[in-house]
Amino acid sequence: MTYRRSRSLIGALRLLPVAALLAVLGPPALATAQDVSYSVFPTFEELRWDDAWGLEDARMPGIRVGIDFGPFFSLQPFYAWKDGVGIRDGLEPTEGSEVAGSYDLQLLGAEFQVNFGHGAIAPFVKGGGGVLRTEDDVAGRRDRILLRGGGGVSFALGDRARGEVFGERFTTRLPSPFIPGAVDSDDVPDDGLVNSLVVGAGLRLPVGGGYRATEGTFGILPGIYIEPYVSRIDFDSRLRLPRQYTAGGRAGIDLNQNVGLRAFYWRGVNDDIDEWDDLDSYGAELQFALNTGPGISPFLLVGAGRINFKDDFRDLDDVARSREDHLTLGGGFAIGLGDNTRIELGARSLFMTVDEEIGDVTSPDQLVANWQYSAGVSVALGARPRPRAAPTPTDPDRARFERELEALRAENERLRRGEDPERVAEVPTRPAVAVADTLPAPRTILVPVPEVGEIILRYGPEYARAAPDTTVRVDTLGIQPGQIDALVSEAVRRELERAGIRPGVPVRPDPTVVPEEPEERLRIAGRRLNALMPYTGAQVSPGELLLGVRGDLGIVSESIPVDIIPDVTFGLFGGSPTLMAGVNGRFGWNVGSERMVFPYVEAGAALSSRKFITVNLGYGAEFDVGSGDSTRRLFVQHRGVNAFREHQFLIGIRLPR
């Protein structure tokens, strides 16, 4: 076998994000919202070793667990094993070397798979990594890091099961031949990376979860996600780096409801969180949401990054540093605050090396885990609300629906057989709409459009009968022959238009037909801006003239009656302008006076050009002045910046929108 440097595998792994984009930009997705499903995947693989290993080919049973994020993306932990793998036939180990007679193998790790479709036959690519463990009587247990990547084809087997065949490049680092004498030492690549080949097949068996039928999505979801956050990193003592506080942000897109791609940047801050430190970092992450519904949503993530140390940085041994590369594994959970805003709490393990470059690592024992704990807010800009599952009907509703449906089926069958309408039993229905008994043409009727089922229109004297309010009676008196069909067709057409359903070429519906809630209000983070509140004021200690504006985005929820108040303040201080922007929570009440006075208390956090992060507290009141049409609502407030270390006195006006 020819020895080549393993750049092809690394290049293939770099192409996985591109493949993910192609998967969602290519054929449109199904008209479903992706949710997480799970599958068990028994496999059989053949590992065809590079000559440097000196081992016979190994045929290994294995098992995978598929965590499927919609039809295109899947995260697959894997495990395979083979005991008693011998030395390659005809190989004579180097004389004097101590070699075991056989070796036990285990492969464990995880891969990310991107499917190019979900039909009867669908190609895919995948890549990932893990650990290759060998164990023998001479050297004992040895672990090596492996990278693997390739592709294959999946095909349907029945309604839900699928078969897969695949081939992958399997890369490990061998500074010298595994079996002494397997190849000449000069034939081993300088970097020690050798490539083997894995071919295999498997059967995917779904065990739970699936897709829920909701509003359709096509390709990449619209919107950019901005996630400012703060974090703390606890470095391993072997790295000789101090505990570090950081502030930064993530930005990216969602590939579907469960998979998101984020780039990140952070910069170090000192322990008092009022000055920048001499290090920063950048990188990227792939995030996997395990739940997209309301409430708490857990997520997993994988990524990589680089920490850059500036010239003035010194570690605990007073030594300068240049950079540290790292791999990232972690998770956390998000708490929704509406359709487009959520709080995110996460924990990430940053895997680094002590003495080697991370690209030169052979064993997982050379990696050091460093924990990063973060908290932030994710805001979707330009995104539409996530699809929501339809409410589940209760048992009484379901039973009543089944009874009504069965009665309608029976009546429909009798009508098709041509039975006398006078002998047709009454069908219980919900009150829908009343129609005049007999009106001269032209006339209109209102026909309800069901979500499921069919519309049956009956007219003529033989169908006119005495019934409760739910019975419709129609007569043809005064209508010319053939005119009834035209009237009914016109009535159905009009009612379908009112419901937003039009056959043929779609036409924008008349806004006067279907009144909608006005959309001219400005939205911030998915919430309507209820009011703008410009203000002015002054700060003491140090003195400063203030100009600012704040908004009112309404309460968090009915159970949490706290108003969300974004705020931007511009200040002039000694000729040098300052800027502070943040978000506050405000709780207020009405004292019940004739002047309509609303006292409130307030707390929040802000980013400041003078002190990086501040915690602001305050109290104040809104009150009405004037009377009649000239009534205006003003407010006054005492705000304590940085927990009342600085004092601001504000006065402004509330302008409803």
Choose one word for the global shape.
flat
How far is the N terminus from the C terminus?
74 Å
Structural class of the secondary structure composition?
mainly beta
Number of beta strands:
26
Rg to the nearest angstrom? Answer: 34 Å
Strand line-up in the sheet with most strands: 1-2-3-4-5-6-7-8
For the residues shown, what is the average pLDDT? 78
Strand content: over 45%
Compact summary:
The protein has 657 residues and is mainly beta. 9% of the residues lie in helices and 47% in strands. The chain contains 4 helices and 26 strands.
Protein architecture, described:
The protein is flat and about 105 Å long. Strand 2 (58-69) and strand 3 form a beta hairpin. Residues 1-34, 211-219, 422-442, 465-477 and 509-522 have low confidence and may be disordered. The chain has four domains: 7-209, Beta Barrel (Porin), CATH 2.40.160; 224-381, Porin, CATH 2.40.160.20; 420-516, no CATH class; 523-656, Porin. The termini are far apart. It contains four helices and 26 strands. With 657 residues, it is mainly beta.
Descriptive tags:
single chain, 657 residues, mainly beta, Porin, 4 domains, 8-stranded antiparallel beta barrel, 8-stranded antiparallel β-barrel, 26 strands, flat
